[in-house]
Design goal:
Layout lengths: L3 E3 L10 H18 L19 H4 L22 E8 L2 E8 L4 E8 L7 E9 L2 E6 L1 E3 L2 E3 L3 E2 L4 E7 L2 E4 L4
Parallel strand pairs: 1-2
Antiparallel strand pairs: 2-3, 3-4, 4-8, 4-9, 5-6, 5-10, 7-8, 10-11
């Protein structure tokens, strides 16, 4: 997916349920087509490790993934993006694991000179919204996960403003 570039402040947009369902269907279809086929090279978040089938690596699913690290649980294997964009020199991705049925945000420094940057996953719950902030590991960081059974969006904050991704 080609990243969109965002340069200024944005505002939240309405839910795109149809788009979300289509993406989930495409991710699941791709998983079925690729079942049993060995990966040619490891994914970005599991580089250096021998890949096993995603279901063998995953240690959580749905609500049991809440507040857990997607890499430590194996949920990053086979994950895809709901959305991605570049904001003040950072690639910000709304990640989804069909195996774990969970979402998180991943951010990677690309270029730029924002002296302050953070990103978080915001999940809409009946009692109020929950935020999972990115923990940095060098130039890349990701948040803990939350169940994909709830609407969520990614948010990027810098010294120049805030950008709100779409709700999925």
């Amino acid at each position: 997916m080609r990243a969109k570039t965002r340069t200024g402040s944005g505002s939240p947009t309405s839910s795109r349920t149809g788009r979300r369902l289509l993406l989930i269907a495409l991710v699941l279809a791709a998983g079925v087509l690729n079942a049993g086929v060995a990966a040619a090279e490891p994914s970005t978040e599991t580089a250096g490790a021998q890949e096993a089938p995603a279901s063998a690596l995953a240690t959580c699913s749905g609500n049991s993934c809440n507040y857990q690290d997607p890499q430590a649980t194996g949920c990053s294997t086979g994950a895809a993006n709901f959305d991605d964009w570049i904001y003040v020199g950072y690639l910000v991705e709304h990640r989804y694991s069909p195996t774990c049925r969970a979402v998180w945000v991943r951010a990677t420094y690309v270029s730029g000179n924002a002296w302050s940057f953070s990103a978080y996953l915001e999940t809409r719950l009946p009692g109020g919204n929950v935020r999972q902030y990115v923990t940095w590991r060098g130039d890349t960081g990701w948040s803990n996960m939350y169940s994909s059974g709830y609407l969520s969006r990614i948010v990027a904050v810098s010294n120049t403003g805030t950008y709100y991704g779409d709700w999925f």
